[in-house]
Amino acid sequence: MGLSRTSAIWAVIWPSLRGDPETIWSFIIPLTLSVKPMNQDLRMTSLLTYTLKYLPSTSQWALRFSMRPLSCSSQLRAATAVQAKSKQTLAKPNIRNIVVVDGVRTPFLLSGTSYKDLMPHDLARAALSGLLHRTSVPKDVVDYIIFGTVIQEVKTSNVAREAALGAGFSDRTPAHTVTMACISSNQAMTTAVSLIASGQCDVVVAGGVELMSDVPIRHSRKMRKMMLDLSKAKTLGQRLSLISKFRLNFLSPELPAVAEFSTNETMGHSADRLAAAFAISRLEQDEYALRSHSLAKKAQDEGLLSDVVPFKVPGKDTVTQDNGIRPSSLEQMAKLKPAFIKPYGTVTAANSSFLTDGASAVLILAEEKALAMGYKPKAYLRDFMYVSQDPKDQLLLGPTYATPKVLEKAGLTMNDIDAFEFHEAFSGQILANLKAMDSDWFAQNYMGRKAKVGSPPLEKFNIWGGSLSLGHPFGATGCRLVMAAANRLQKEGGQYGLVAACAAGGQGHAMIVEAYPK
Amino acid sequence: MVASRAVGSLSRFTASRMLRCPGYICRNFTRSSALLTRTHINYGVKGDVAVIRINSPNSKVNTLGQELHSEFIEVMNEVWSSNQIRSAVLISSKPGCFIAGADLNMLTACTTSQEVTQISQEAQRMFEKVEKSTKPIVAAINGSCLGGGLELAISCQYRIATKDKKTVLGSPEVLLGILPGAGGTQRLPKMVGVPAAFDMMLTGRGIRADRAKKMGLVDQLVEPLGPGIKPPEERTIEYLEEVAITFAKGLADKKISPKRDKGLVEKLTSYAMSIPFVRQQIYKKVEEKVRKQTKGLYPAPLKIIDVVKTGIEQGSDAGYLSESQKFGELAMTKESKALMGLYRGQTLCKKNKFGAPQKEVKQLAILGAGLMGAGIAQVSVDKGLQTILKDATLAALGRGQQQVFRGLDDKVKKKALTSFERDAFFSNLTGQLDYQGFEKADMVIEAVFEDLSLKHKVLKEVEAVIPDHCVFASNTSALPISEIAAVSKRPEKVIGMHYFSPVDKMQLLEIVTAQNTSKDTTASAVEVGLKQGKVIIVVKDGPGFYTTRCLAPMMSEVIRILQEGVGPKKLDSLTTSFGFPVGAATLVDEVGVDVAKHVAENLGKVFGERFAGGSLEVLKQMISKGFLGRKSGKGFYIYQEGVKNKNLNSDIDSILASLKTPPQPDVSSDEDIQYRLVTRFVNEAVLCLQEGVLATPTEGDIGAVFGLGFPPSLGGPFRFVDLYGAQKIVDRLRKYEAAYGKQFTPCQLLMDHASSPNKKFYQ
C-alpha cells in the first residue's frame, strides 16, 4: 500500500457532474451522462485506512429517497419539529449553559490538490482566521484554544499553538492539541465544554485540522539510531566505526501506520468484515455512497454548506468549495474492484471516504458571556458520551454504542431528534451501525441492553451529505458534524440534533446539540 | 522435575493436531428415500450451485466413517446427474471443524491389512471421482481440516479457508503410525511440491490458513467475522458459504481459473523436481533424515516416502495401489496401535473427570520464580489467568519475569502471537516480593526448593493470608503431599501439581491427591491444568507418586550400568535406539544430579531393596565435584553456551573407575542392557497400578510417554506389556532377577497377566 498509489484518488478520475446547474436531481443525471471508466488501480481508500472513519446506512433508502420530492421532505421535517418533545430543553439547574456561536471550516479538498504544498498549521490558521472574521470575536477575549489532529506534523506537534500565533491571537492565549483519531475535534470541543462548565474559561475556540497531502515518513529505526549515535560520537574513529555499520536496508523508510496498532488490521479491511457480519451487500453500500454524494451536491448547490469559508491558498486560486463531491452512477461504482478484501470484498474506493485536507473551528462560550457580548448563538452543546469497544470486530460500531447512552443521559428518545449527523467512514460502516441500532439481538447480546434503540429515520439523517462525499480530514470532521447539526436545526426549525462518530481504536462518541431558541 | 528438555520433542503429539475419533455408533435405518434419511449430510441448491453441508450427529467433529462416506457418494451422484446443478460447495455446519480425519474406530475394527486396504481403495475411488468432476466443487473450510478431510479438500477443484486460528490443515497420519490413505500421498506433492508435501506428511504438522494460502494448499482466504446480525461463528460459516458460492459460480462460468499463478521460487522448484537426478537426491536426503530421526523405530515415515516415490516415478496407478497397500500394512503394525492408543489416551486425559469446581480459579499465585515457577506462570498468563509471581529477592523475581516474557516473545517471533497480544498477556502477570493480593487468590501453586521444612514454612505463611476457598498446590516431584499437608489448617485444600520442565514444552501435569484432598480441590486443579493446556493424569499420593517412582528404579539401573563400564555415550545410544527421546545419561544431567540423588535417597529409604542397583556414591561424588548436570555446566557431559555437540566430562571416568563393579556377562549384551532399564520401569509402573496409585493403565501410559519420554513407539508401559507379551517380560525379569536379585522380581499383577494370555490392560 504505497503512499504514491493511495494518494491518487478515484474521485479525481471520476467525471465531474457539476456541469448542469439546473439539475437538482444530480444523482439521476449521472445515469444519462457518458462516464469514463474509473481507474481501479488508483484507489485512495487504502490510504484512508490510516485513521479512522465510520459510517451508517440502511437498506431500501435509495428507492424511497428518489421517489420523494424534496420539497415534501421539508414539510415532513417541519411536521416532526412541532411534535412534542420528551423535554422542552436540556438545560440543567446549577450548570452553565454552553453555546456554540458559530463555526467555520476551510473547504475540504481531496488530498494532493490545492492544499498539497501547505502545512497543517496553515490550514488550521485559515480556519481560525475564518472564525475570527465570521464571529468578529475580539482576539484577546479568547481564553483558550484547542485543536484536534491525528497524523501529526512533527515540526508542529502542538499545531493549535502554532496556528493561533499565526492567526494573530494573543500570545497570552494558551493552546493545546488533542488526538483521538477521527473524533479528535469532538474531543477538542468537549474539552472546551468541560473548561467552561467547570468555570475555568468563558470563551474557547475548538477546532481540528488534517493535512493528508503530506504525512511524516521517517527513517528506519536503525538509521535513526545510527544518526543519533553519530551526533554523539566525539572522534573521527568513533564516527567511522558507526558509519561502517551502515547497511543499505537502513534507508528503507517507515510509513505512518496504516493498520490498527492493536490488531494489525487496516480500517477498510475491518469495515469490509463488518459489512459482511451485518450481511450488507455491495449494492446497498454503493447506493448509500451515491446518496451521500447526491445530497452533498444538492446542499452545495443550494448554498446550505454555510460553514465553508473561502481560503486564498498562497500561490494558488482562492478555494471556495469542497471538491470531493462527485455523484456518479451505480453502474460506474459497480465497476470498481474491492479495495481491501480481494477479490470478493464489498468495500471499494467509491463507497469509502477519501483522503482529505481540511480544517475547522468553532467558537464556544458560556451562554451568559455570549449574550453579554451581544451574540446570537446557534446552538447549545449538551450531553456527550465517549464509548469504546473491541478494536478488532467492533472497530467502527462506536455510534451504535454511544447513541442510546447519550439519549438516556439526556432523557431523550430517537423520536426527539430532528437532525442526525453521523460520521460516514464507509458506506458499509454506516449501514452496519444502522442495522445494529435496529437489532434487539445485538442490543441484548453485545450491549447489555434490553432492547434496541432503533434506527434513525433516513429523512433526518445526514441530509446535507457526509464524510463520504464532503470529505473526512480526520481531525477536523467533528466540528463539521456539530456545525452541520446546528445549521440544520436553525434552517429546518428542529430542536435536537444528534452527532455521532466512530474512531480508530474501537472508540466512539455522541453528543446532543440543542437549537438556540430564535 | 524429573523430566528433561529434550523430551519436548514429544510435544508433536499435540491433541489438536491429531485425528479425532469420537467413535459414533453406526445406526441402522431403513431408507425410504435417500433424501430423507441422511444423517451426516444434507444439501440444498442455491441457483445452480449445490451446497453440501456435512454435520455428523452427536459429535463435535465430522469424521470420515463408512456412513458419511456412503451418504457422500449418494449426494455426489445426485449432484452429477442433476441438470440443474452446475457446481457444488462442500462445507461443514460445525463451527471449528471441517473434517477432522478418518474415523479411527473404523480402522481399529479391521483385523487384516486387506480390510484396511479396501477402505483405502474405496476412498481413493471416490476422491478420484471428485477430482475428475466436470462440475467444479469448492471446499469451504472452517476449522480443522485434517487427514482424510484434507485429502477430500485437495481432491476438490478449489479451496477456500477461513483465516481463523482454528482452521488448521494437515496430514497427521504419521503421528498415528499410518499414512494418508485416500490419495493424499499422490495429490499433495502435485499441489504443494514434493519438499513441502514431505514436510507435511512426515511431521504431521498443522498448517494455518494464511500459510496454506502461500503454499498453494488453499486458493482463497475468508476473514472470520465479528458480531453482526448473528453470533460470529454462525455468520462466519454463512459468509464462507456465500463467498464459496460466488466462486463456484465463477468456476462453472469459467470466469475464475482454478489454476493458480506460481511464484518464481515455486516455478524453479517444480522445474528442479522435473529432473530425475534432483528427485533421487531429494528422496535420498529425506530418507537419510528420517532414518536418523526415527532410528528405524517407526515404519510409517519411510513408507510414506516410498509411496510418494512410487507415484512420481511409476505413475499414479502404481502410486494409488502402493498407497492403499502400505496403508493396510501400517494399520496392522504394533507401532500404529501404540500411537493410536496414545492418541486416545491423550484425548481422555484432556477431560475433567471430576466435574466443574465450585469456584472457578481466576486469580492464581505462584511462589518461587525459578524455572518451574516462571514456566507455570507463562502457561497461565497466556490463557488469561491473572497470575501473581512471588519470590524472595528482586533478582530471582526479575529472572523469572524475564523468562515469562521471553517465552511469550518467542511466540511473537514465530508469529503465533502478535506483539500486542504478548503485551496484553504479559500484563496478566504481577511480580512481587510480598503477599499483597494473596487475599484474593483462588489457587496458590508453590514452586520453591524441594525441602520439606521450607515447604512447611511457605504453606504456613500463605495460609495466614489466603481466603478459605483458596487451593494450595505443591509443585513437588517426590515429597509426599500428605507430609506437606501435615502442617496445614485445611488439608482438604492441599494437593500436588507436578509439572515437568520445561513447563511450556512438556505437556504432562501429574496431579497428586492425598487422602485428605477433597474432590472439589482436585476438580479445581484439573481445571487449571486443562486451561494451561496440559495433559493430565491424577494419581494417589505416595513417595514419588507415579512418574518419579517409575523413573527411580530405571535411574538406579543406569548408574549400575555405568559402574559396569558402559560409557555414557554408549548408554545414551542404547537408550535412544530403543526409542527414548533422550539418552539415559543425558537424562540424569537434565534432571540434575543432585535431584536424582535426592530422589534416589528418599525413595530408596521407603522402597528398600527394590530400588537398589547402582551405588549412590557415584552421584554423591559427582555432587561433591560440582557436576550437577546441565545446570552447572558439567555432569556426564560438558555443557557450554552455544556449543551444540557436547563432550564427555572426562573427570567422571575416575569416579566411575573407582566405583567399578564387574559386569555380569549373561545379562550385559546391548539388548539386555536395554531391557534391564525398560523392564524395571515397566514392572514399577504395573506395581503402581496394582497398588492403586494409578487409576487406569491409560494414565500410566500417558504419564510415562509425555512426562518421562518412555518410547512412544511402544505406546507406554502398559501398552508395551499388551503388545510385547507379559510372559516375555516376566521371562526377562526372571533372567535378570537371577543375576541381580529382588530388584527384578516381577510384581503380582504382571505375573497375573503372564499367566493368562487373554488378560490385557487394553481390551
TrEMBL record, chain A:
Heterotetramer of 2 alpha/HADHA and 2 beta/HADHB subunits; forms the mitochondrial trifunctional enzyme. Also purified as higher order heterooligomers including a 4 alpha/HADHA and 4 beta/HADHB heterooligomer which physiological significance remains unclear. The mitochondrial trifunctional enzyme interacts with MTLN. Interacts with RSAD2/viperin. GO terms for cellular component: endoplasmic reticulum; mitochondrial fatty acid beta-oxidation multienzyme complex; mitochondrial inner membrane; mitochondrial outer membrane. Belongs to the thiolase-like superfamily. Thiolase family. One of its GO terms (biological process) is fatty acid beta-oxidation. Its EC number is 2.3.1.155, 2.3.1.16. This is Trifunctional enzyme subunit beta, mitochondrial. Residues 98-367 form the Thiolase N-terminal domain. Keywords: Acetylation, Acyltransferase, Endoplasmic reticulum, Fatty acid metabolism, Lipid metabolism, Membrane, Mitochondrion, Mitochondrion inner membrane, Mitochondrion outer membrane, Transferase, Transit peptide. It comes from Lipotes vexillifer (Yangtze river dolphin). It is an enzyme of class 2 (transferase). Residues 375-514 form the Thiolase C-terminal domain. InterPro entries: Thiolase, Thiolase-like, Thiolase_acyl_enz_int_AS, Thiolase_AS, Thiolase_C, Thiolase_CS, Thiolase_N. It comes from the Eukaryota. Pathway: Lipid metabolism; fatty acid beta-oxidation. PANTHER family: ACETYL-COA C-ACYLTRANSFERASE, TRIFUNCTIONAL ENZYME SUBUNIT BETA, MITOCHONDRIAL. SUPFAM superfamilies: Thiolase-like. GO terms for molecular function: acetyl-CoA C-acyltransferase activity; acetyl-CoA C-myristoyltransferase activity. It catalyses: octanoyl-CoA + acetyl-CoA = 3-oxodecanoyl-CoA + CoA; decanoyl-CoA + acetyl-CoA = 3-oxododecanoyl-CoA + CoA; dodecanoyl-CoA + acetyl-CoA = 3-oxotetradecanoyl-CoA + CoA; an acyl-CoA + acetyl-CoA = a 3-oxoacyl-CoA + CoA. Mitochondrial trifunctional enzyme catalyzes the last three of the four reactions of the mitochondrial beta-oxidation pathway. The mitochondrial beta-oxidation pathway is the major energy-producing process in tissues and is performed through four consecutive reactions breaking down fatty acids into acetyl-CoA. Among the enzymes involved in this pathway, the trifunctional enzyme exhibits specificity for long-chain fatty acids.
TrEMBL record, chain B:
Keywords: Acetylation, Fatty acid metabolism, Lipid metabolism, Lyase, Membrane, Methylation, Mitochondrion, Mitochondrion inner membrane, Multifunctional enzyme, NAD, Oxidoreductase, Phosphoprotein, Transferase, Transit peptide. Its main location: mitochondrion. The keyword Mitochondrion applies. The active site is at 510 (for hydroxyacyl-coenzyme a dehydrogenase activity). Residues 544-639 form the 3-hydroxyacyl-CoA dehydrogenase C-terminal domain. GO terms for molecular function: enoyl-CoA hydratase activity; long-chain (3S)-3-hydroxyacyl-CoA dehydrogenase (NAD+) activity; NAD+ binding; transferase activity. It catalyses: (3S)-hydroxyoctanoyl-CoA = (2E)-octenoyl-CoA + H2O; (3S)-hydroxytetradecanoyl-CoA + NAD(+) = 3-oxotetradecanoyl-CoA + NADH + H(+); 1'-[1,2-di-(9Z,12Z-octadecadienoyl)-sn-glycero-3-phospho]-3'-[1-(9Z,12Z-octadecadienoyl)-sn-glycero-3-phospho]-glycerol + (9Z)-octadecenoyl-CoA = 1'-[1,2-di-(9Z,12Z-octadecadienoyl)-sn-glycero-3-phospho]-3'-[1-(9Z,12Z-octadecadienoyl)-2-(9Z-octadecenoyl)-sn-glycero-3-phospho]-glycerol + CoA; (3S)-3-hydroxydodecanoyl-CoA + NAD(+) = 3-oxododecanoyl-CoA + NADH + H(+). It comes from the Eukaryota. It is found in: Mitochondrion inner membrane. The record marks 498 as: Important for hydroxyacyl-coenzyme A dehydrogenase activity. One of its GO terms (biological process) is fatty acid beta-oxidation. Its EC number is 1.1.1.211, 4.2.1.17. Residues 364-541 form the 3-hydroxyacyl-CoA dehydrogenase NAD binding domain. Pathway: Lipid metabolism; fatty acid beta-oxidation. The record marks 151, 173 as: Important for long-chain enoyl-CoA hydratase activity. One of its GO terms (cellular component) is mitochondrial inner membrane. In the N-terminal section; belongs to the enoyl-CoA hydratase/isomerase family. Belongs to the enoyl-CoA hydratase/isomerase family. NCBIfam families: fa_ox_alpha_mit. Heterotetramer of 2 alpha/HADHA and 2 beta/HADHB subunits; forms the mitochondrial trifunctional enzyme. Also purified as higher order heterooligomers including a 4 alpha/HADHA and 4 beta/HADHB heterooligomer which physiological significance remains unclear. The mitochondrial trifunctional enzyme interacts with MTLN. This is Trifunctional enzyme subunit alpha, mitochondrial. The gene is HADHA.
